[in-house]
Amino acid sequence: MSESVFSWPVRVYWEDTDAGGVVYHAGYLRFMERARSEWMRALGVDQMAFKQATGLAFMVRDMQIDFLKPALLDDELSVTVEVKERRAASILFTQTITKTDGSCLIRAQVRVACVDLQRMRPAPIPADLIPEPAP
């Protein structure tokens, strides 16, 4: 799975938009978070079981977003997840949000850190949890 781009579909609902029917900027963050969660699920990772077994969880450390075009009420979108870099305690993802016509609305780089929840400190990602990205 790490060699390909994971894609997750989303439809824009009223709750995602402002009064003008345009997706509110924080809505894109939810879409990207859900896509990363679904990516992990597709890898066979149950995040709750992982947390209970290890005391570890992933938290966003850094995010850079280019808002290129708006998404509107009822748009059908595709949110992608691709691992660009894996370090001992973090993963750098490239994510995009596109419309079904192929137009790119959002480009983002998201670094998530693996955190020991008891100490709230970075912790090594278990070696067998997430595959290394393709070179």
Automatic annotation (TrEMBL):
<comment type="similarity">
    <text>Belongs to the 4-hydroxybenzoyl-CoA thioesterase family.</text>
</comment>
<dbReference type="InterPro" id="IPR014166">
    <property type="entry name" value="Tol-Pal_acyl-CoA_thioesterase"/>
</dbReference>
<dbReference type="InterPro" id="IPR008272">
    <property type="entry name" value="HB-CoA_thioesterase_AS"/>
</dbReference>
<dbReference type="Pfam" id="PF13279">
    <property type="entry name" value="4HBT_2"/>
</dbReference>
<protein>
    <submittedName>
        <fullName>Tol-pal system-associated acyl-CoA thioesterase</fullName>
    </submittedName>
</protein>
<dbReference type="InterPro" id="IPR050563">
    <property type="entry name" value="4-hydroxybenzoyl-CoA_TE"/>
</dbReference>
<dbReference type="InterPro" id="IPR006684">
    <property type="entry name" value="YbgC/YbaW"/>
</dbReference>
<dbReference type="InterPro" id="IPR029069">
    <property type="entry name" value="HotDog_dom_sf"/>
</dbReference>
<keyword id="KW-0378">Hydrolase</keyword>
